[in-house]
Amino acid sequence: MKKTKFSRSFTGMHFERGFITSLFFAFLLFFVSCGSNEGQTIYDKGEKLKKEGRYEEAITKYRYVVLHYQKAKIAPEALFRIGEVSYIYLKDFNAAARAFRDLLNNYSWSARCKQAQLHLADIEMYGVQDFKQAIAEYQKAISYYGADKESERFQHEIAKAYFNLENFEQQRVELTLLLSKFPDSELAQSVYYEIANSYYIEGRPDEAIEAYKKVIEKYPNTSTSLESKFQTASCLEEKEDLKGAIEILKEIEGVYPNYKIVKMRIERIKKRLKSRRR
Hints:
The chain is mainly alpha-helical. The protein folds into 3 domains: 40-127, Tetratricopeptide repeat domain (Serine Threonine Protein Phosphatase 5, Tetratricopeptide repeat, Alpha Horseshoe), CATH 1.25.40; 130-186, no CATH class; 202-278, Serine Threonine Protein Phosphatase 5, Tetratricopeptide repeat (Alpha Horseshoe), CATH 1.25.40. Helix content is 81%, strand content 0%. It is built from 13 helices and no strands. Mean pLDDT is 89; it is low at 19-35.
């Protein structure tokens, strides 16, 4: 059967359109590839400047990459570097926080998000010292790291933030949660001591004494145990149990690192006892 003139021209048109489409995508791929390579080159210049200690110049290069190659894979790397250099080397915490937030908001697929969230939380805690915001950022960090050991530190930082906010009740909740989530935590000894201290600072000597007792029993012959005994003496003194306070201070007098302060405390309490008898 012979092909009609129409069928031949239709086939030719179909082939021509397919060829043009293929050619278009080939050119598009070429230009994207060129752009990506150019972005990488500029990023590498930034890396070189960073190694030379020319941090502000390095940031200029990284920022150029972020602005002009937003869709390139190198863009989140450049944004992370802006945050990192601003945070670690320039101590510009606000600029660092902005960069890390931009990365988290615009490149949530990037492997750098995990580390960016960690840095952002630490900036809020130790740089800006916005403790409420630090709590929120560490909670987000926990969602990134899951059961990873880093989450143990984040949980501890949340408790510290509540301490700084003088919310001692919530501090104890967070510390107890840490012990529950990480029963074999290397921080456990410190955590039990912090729970006891929070009661003492809050002016609750009875609960503090019980909490210090737990530390002494769980961790005998440690520096934390010695500190707990010293603090127990303080609690007893506050409760006006002066003889009990002297008894504990004498127990640690020869082993407590700052023996002078122990001796001074004993002498001071003895004077108080004498004045009572008059």
